[in-house]
Design brief:
1540 residues; alpha/beta; 6-stranded mixed β-sheet; elongated
Amino acid sequence: MDEECNTLPVEKWTEAHVSSWLTSIGVKEQYVKKLNEEEVDGPVLREITEEFLKQQTGMKSGPALLILQKRNELINSRQALGKEQPSLKAKMSPDSPAVGQSDQQETSPVRINAVKGQDRPEAETDAAAGQRASLFSQKRDCKPRPFGKEGIDIKYVKHNVLQPESGVVDLITPCREYKSLTTAARLDRPRLQAKFAKELLKFGSGCMNVRSNGTIYFGVVDSREDHGFVHGEIIGVPVEEKDLYVDALDHIGKSFSAPDSEHVWQCIRPPQFIEVVDMNSSEKHFVIEVDIVPAVSIVKGKVYSVRLPNFKESSNKVEREKTTIYRRVGAKTEPVSDPLEFYQNVKDRDAQRERAEVSHFRNAPDVCEDLGRKLMVLLTGGKQYIEKDKWYILVTNKFPREDLNAIDFLLNMKIFCVFDFDPDSKVSGFCNKYQEHHAANLHFLQNYKLQGGVSINDFVRHLQLFEQTSWIFCNGRNDYHGNEVACDEMTWIKTKKTLLKEAVSLICKQILPKGLFFVIFLLMSPIEQPLVHTFHEFFAEMQGHEDIICISESEENHLKWTGFAQASCSTEIVNRASVVRMKMSHVNATVLRIQPLTARTHKHLSVFTKGTCLLETAEEERMSSLEILSVYQCEETTAEFVESEKENIERHFYHGGKVSWLNFWLAEQKYVGEVLQREAYGEVSKVLRDILKWSPEQIPVSCIHIYHHPGSGGSTVARQILWNNRRDLRCAVVKPSYPVARVCEHAVKLREYEEKDTQKCLPVLLLIEDKDEEYLDDLRHELEVAVTTKKINQNTLCFVLLSCTRSHDPEQMCRAYPLHNVAVTHKLKSEEKRQFAGKRKKLEEQYQPEFILTFVLMSEEFEKQYIKDFVEHLLQGIDHSSLTSRLIRYVALLNCYVQNSYISQSHCEALLALTIHIDRFRQHNFERSLSEQAKLVFVHLRDEKTYIESVRIIHPLVAKEILQQLSGSRQQQSVIAMDLLKEDVLFENRFGREEYVKFLRDLFMKRCRISKGDKSDSFFSPLIEHVREKETPERAIELLHAAYNRFNKDVFFAQQLARLNYSYEKFEEAKSWAEIAAKERPNNSYILDTKGQVFRRWFDAKCKAVGKLNMTAENTADTIKTGLIAIECFKKCQKVANLDKDSINNSGFYAEVEIGCNLLKLISSLTVFSNRNSGHSEFVKYLVTDYIPEEVSKPWEDFHCDLKSLQKNMYEALEWISEDLSYFQTDTNAEEEEGSSSEIKISNPKTWLVIKSSVFGKYFIDKSFFSGNQAWMSNQGTAFMRRMKIYHLGGGNITTIFSILTDQKMKDPIRALEDIISLYPNDPHNAKLDQMDLVNYIASQIALGCLSTVSPKLAALHELQKLSHQFPKERHKCQSSALFLLTLLFWPEEDDSEHAREIKYEIIMPAAELLKRYYRVKMKDVPRRKRRIYIHFFLGNGSGWNRVVHKSKVETHTNLLTVPEKRMKWLQGEVCKVSGITKLLKRVQGWTEDGTVFLKGPENKKFEIHALNSTSVPYGNENVTFYLGFTFQGPVAHNITVIT
């Protein structure tokens, strides 16, 4: 076992410590591994049960028993040495034989000895004695049953200790005497009754004679007769028949004289049986208590003598002892030594008793504690109001009907969940009433069982926790049709207790941090065991009672509750946290006074008719993805709350906190100064006003972008726009982490809420913060589809998306859409400078400068020197070795490199080793623990959804400067990062772990993207880029290696290590890492791509090295082999990528061509292939025939076959790329996921294809063929050589052919096309061209026809139609490019006869149908946004060649637009509205049915035409016209317009 395990308390053990300990005691590795996966650390080890071990690990009973036994021995031995605190949970849990059970195990031999009447062993070691003393110290004091009260609702806990026996105090306060009765309890009935009666009558007569009340306890240890226990310890006695003890009182008649026995019967009350709760035993034990009440009216003037019963074994019957007078002397009952004197003092004793009774029963006014104040203090911790950001967990049983009208205070609370034990609650109880006002998700205990592999965040999202109250029916639900029926207590304990335990543990350990929530027990009806078990679980998981409150109107219910609760804590603790005897209506009125809202909040929304409507809270909660802004937002805030909190709210904002609606409201109401408006606010307002103006070109969904420097006020500008438009629009903020479909659903619901006509609704203004273009495009698309489905007029503005995104270059981002984009930078305009200076002066009069740091920095425009000086001053005298300084370094590192990062307060406390005992002052204690520097630079954040606290540096630029100064003088950034990786306490802290791990991962993995607003694209994360450039590459590799280990050998880190190593030509290491990644993820095309890139870079390096030598076949063999290995890797990448239906990765094809070209260059450079006379001919012969030159025969013998297949493989890769580019637009801004980006970045794929196709063709052209020397060439070789020449000229595939139409650099595109066509046979009809050559020939003719209709090489359109009949008759054998050409060639003309049109449609329609099918295969399952279909041609306004209009001709009319604006106009179908285009293109007539466009086909068949923009399709059945485009998906309808 680790040395550290021996020194650390078990409570502080990590999973690794536990694993080490388990191994040391001989537990099998499989169980050790499983327990490690279940995150069993020290605290969990103390609590685990045999049931847990068997269920969670599949462990057999043997090893489970071993673990529990060894665990108990470990903890007991450490307690004996004072190294370990007792585990309350282990002691009290009924399921766990933990520390509490060890009490019993240690003392049980002594107890047996005591029972048998044997002495305690004389020899006892010091350790054992110490352990026994430790065990005694664990026993808790408890209060006895109130004198004279019934014991039905009271419980004792075994081993708790009552106050010591007592003598006479004031005659009214009872004296106490204890008897264990352990031996007698096992006797038969006569013997037991005699023993019981003897002790009782002796004590009773003693009390009566001294006129004092008293209680005798049976089942409580009297130290004089019981060894191994402490005095007053509750052990209880087994009671099989209660009447046995009641009947024992019959001895009174035989033990006292006739007159006296009547008095004794009146003074000795019936026995009370108080149940003893033993969590480690199912056998019931009781303490039997008998009260003695010698009222003066009964005993006046009397002295009572008694003949005590005693069972004689010799005679086997009960006999009476001699008559004796007993009295209480101190804590004992003794015989009266001087009867005469005792008789003489009877009158004095009677007088004392009479005075005591009069004093006790005098009619004084009832004094009641101030329950109202107690309730307020419990809920607020002594503050004036309840914290708004607290979560509440309610535990309740059945509500009386009248109390359901007094729950307004509960409706105002942020209730996280309700543990409801009323199975009728949904129909007639609390749940039913609650759902009238709030949305709630109904669950059962089993819904809180965390399944393996499910993350906490996913679990929270699945149950919609934090969004809507989770209502947990803990004992069935009678109205539910599923199998969830209520059950009795014992059945519940058997079937549901474990589920409850898991639910409470999950909430307290992984969802809600301690101090963030209250648990309120509402005891509304009689108490049952399941409710009490819930208290025990919460008390144990929360490690105390500070945030647990109990409210009970019934004193009887609370008394029973207190008895049960003693199993976890003392009666004093329970009473201190309880409010008893206060009516629910009074509770309601009291709590409402201290809630920060004046009443239950109702929001109001503007309506189309200029009025307002009420937004029901339940409806708002059902729109959980939106934070809806009300017309009267914040107006329900109480004046007291404003007065006490306004300064804190304002100061938090100006210190760097996020602006809240309360900031705007306070400023609007003049409680605080105004919130300044940047000039960008006016710009955004103007854009919004322009959008809101109606126009015929109005679109349903518009978008405004705000790009802003971090900390420049961009988010404030966006929220000011919402705030100031809340009365005219419906405004909401889109919450993070919700899928687009859910947001769209809620946005549509918000727009239509309480509106009569869906055509007449106010637009919804949605704020979307820090989301990428992909998210916005998807949301816009979903909203457009919703508008279409709802059949809302296309010219009606329905939604405005206000996107607010951080960017390092906002002005550059705005140039893309200058009309709808606004930049917010750190630079202030002259008017802004004046305003900021004035505001700063006012704030500095009110606050210390350190409280408004962010505003001060902003007013200085975040000037570098100012920040540098500020940080330098800040760090003066800082203790670099302190924990707080380490925390500052870590937060600065994350904030500098990971956008929007933070560290949760829970993580900070773990790092600082803070133990917060008083949780309602947790925040104060945490802040007090920070250094002065940390207090200045940290801004405290609170998650708007969960309210979980976190910290970050006040500004990223400040974080960057802190990092530079700390790392510059003391340590490098790689050292800080390495230290951060090694912080187990941070990595393993459970609360907020997923967010922390994500930030840490992003620190090492997430790359920069210009499209994301970063300054540049990067190959590695900014941190790794910094370390490899500013420090050393070796240090960067070491850092990534450490991250690889930290993240459990994650393959994506291995992939990054491969990339980093080959970047520095460490190819062996790169190969090793790439193979590790590929072995783990053989079906990930991006990882296979990385492996290929390793060999590609290796090949390039070898090419460079060998190029400096006199190249020979021998010294190039290794280089060629490496290149071929790279090609093989990329071919595997291609295969896997094609099978992947969810992503697109074309890199393998591009890389194969790149390497192929370099291989061809290398091979052609050899002397044997570079000879001027015959070298190139030899080169071509070698690569395309069986011929092998002698010079390369031996050196290259291992890869002749691979080299001879090089031409075919490259040709197929080029054709694949061409087809892909023919289908889809290229979108270079698409963002890739982690690990799913390829190394090859092709900015202009079509240009790349043209260049590579030309290079490829050049290498395989034999000049001797064109000079007439064709000795080695057959007819097949001739066709091959022509094809290669065509490839070289740009006619090798349909993409390069059509690219000639858009190539601005080509001097004479007509001549180029004529040269290509001249290489084909003069009579192509009889040349029997294969399908690909036929496609390329026709495509070249069509391209030439678009440029010149008078070229001598141009064939007539009908000739091409005739030639196309050579395509396979079985259309499924046709290539997609051939089908595309058929739709283009045979589209009917205006002057075609009906018969001719029928014939053409019979050719077009099957081709179009097949194109759609091929498109679906090619499209995979990726979003359309990522693979937009590309239009090659439009149907023109002419005949013959004039009706074929290439897209490039259309785009000449849109040259004045920016590229993004041009793209948007194409997507929305607006490009055809541009002047000049309407004359160029022809409108086609058709109709729509249910959102589908049709044309009239052959024999009146319907010809479906795909609509390029689905939102332009009118609803219902309309006659329409549209422009016709030709794509590889088939003909498409563009700019659809209804015929009016």
